[in-house]
Amino acid sequence: MIYKYKDEDLLALSGIQHFAYCPRQWALIHIEKQWIENLHTVEGKQLHERVDNPDFFESRGGVLTARSVPISSYELGFFGVADLVEFYADEKKGITLNGRQGKWRPIPVEYKKGKPKKDIIDQVQLCAQAICLEEMLSTTIEYGYLFYGKTKHRTKIVFGKQLRDEVVRLAEQMHSVFNKQITPKPLTNNKGCKSCSLVNVCLPKLGTKQAGVNSYIKRYLGRE
Amino acid sequence: MKKLLNVLYVTTPEAYLSLDGENVVVLIEGKEKFRLPIHTIESIVCFGFLGASPALMGFCAKNGVGLCFVSPYGRFLARVSGGVYGNVLLRKKQFRVSDSEADCVPIAINCIIAKLNNSRVVIERAIRDHPGQVDVNALKKASTYIKNSTVQLQNCSSLEEIRGIEGDCAKIYFEVFDELILHSKDSFYMRGRNKRPPKDNLNALLSFLYTLLAHDVQSALETVGLDPYVGFLHRERPGRPSLALDIMEEFRAFFVDRLVLSLINRKQITGKGFTVRESGGVMMDADTRKNVLMAWQKRKQEKITHPFLNEKISLGLLPYVQSLLLARHLRGDLDAYPPFLWK
To answer: Chain-centre distance of CA B279, in angstroms?
Structure first.
């Protein structure tokens, strides 16, 4: 099979949630390499530090659990790490795993701080992980889980056609913006700006509220 | 807007800086004098002979805390900076613009427009606040000359022309600068700028504060991912932070000249705080330097509404904001570079 992307084209999978939130935020982080921590990002980092453990592999009651699993998809053009992948013993739908007896069905689980959100940003990221796993393991994954730090509950996410199409659409857009290397303009009226850690780098009001630079200079030099 | 953090100025020449956990520790003769959590400061300026431990340097570089060494006279010696970070695309664009005179000219014009505007504000304020004490005619004449030059400046098509106008205006400005000094005229006078070393008290004071300003501007440029050594008006010369000097033009009168005048006119410093060295170079004593630094830090805490962003910020963030606006212009978000114009 000939894939759409090559090694050097791969983008960080985790960026898809930033891109879905705001393409400019994603470009600031992944093209312009700007990163500023705020309370939200530090909390998120701490949560992942606790979850993160690449040596962890557990086998209990017919479920294998692997943490920090490196994943990629040359069809989406992503690489990244899945927080947690569970493998359920399933002779019918399962696949064989390296060095394991029997057949197993993979289920990705992604850890999120906070609680379930109204938008589908978290779902999109989880689905992208599932598509990576599907490509790597030559299988189909019907659903996965989002684990929320605040509610300490798992939410089951079914990977339907609509969600999958959205992942593909975002992935294509991300590659297109990345290749153009131009940071998209800020979203207008984006309520998310308030909690965005990059707001002071982004200056979202730039170019919306102000008249052009030349009229600013004229205005100042003309006064007296 | 981003939070303004403090700058730690270490003025005792015998001080040695070291790292303990996440604290910077100031040692004098091996004894701990002072410690401060490093996340509360933005940069450290050290006027000592002894310097800092490699561990502290590494920590500062890794965590984006500026660490800069200047001689006890206030002359810049060295700074510690970490790996080049930020956006390579932005830097490449900066280099391309810098290589093309046609692209440099509009940015250079805007920087100098702000320099001229802001020096005029210093003059106009003296006319407004002290009409009885200053030679209003001379000041008016200088102000008008600078104003007319601003108009000419906008039609410049080469960097040479811009430098010419800038040079003329600087000369006119410093010629009337003496008028703005209302007290201790025997101790503080302007008979032309001299730097290496400064030969009178006023020049010593100006040079000292310009060095601090340059440090702040350079750190701010690095924070947004620009290369402080690649300028648009100032040409590259190894070791010279040309872009920092370009951006500094907007701030010289606003930050430094104004502060120097108020320190002198409010008698916060006197001629006694300065010594002429054997070579004719003038040096500040430790107390005066401390006073000046405290006034400088206090000034940075003051608030101002940024004329372009229309947002209230601390003065100390101005170099950062201007660096950000320049980066945004280079990356195509803004049609031109909006300099800082003082009202």
So the answer is: 26
- What pTM value is reported for the model? 0.77
d(CA B113, CA B341): 8
Which residue of chain A comes nearest to B91, CA vs CA? Answer: A32
pLDDT tens, position by position, B114-163:
999 999 999 999 899 888 888 888 889 999 999 999 989 989 999 999 99
Which residue pairs, CB below 8 angstroms and at least 24 apart, start in A68-74?
A71/A13, A71/A129, A71/A132, A71/A133, A71/A136, A72/A10, A72/A13, A72/A132, A72/A135, A72/A136, A73/A128, A73/A131, A73/A132, A73/A135, A73/A136, A74/A3, A74/A4, A74/A5, A74/A6, A74/A10, A74/A135
> What separation, in Å, do the N-terminal and C-terminal C-alpha atoms of chain B show?
21
| DSSP β-bridge partners for residue B26 | B17, B34
Cα separation, B241 vs B237, in Å, equals 8
ipTM of the complex: 0.72
**Nearest CB to B335: which of A213, A220, A223?**
A213
**Do A33 and B1 lie within an 8 Å CB cutoff?**
no
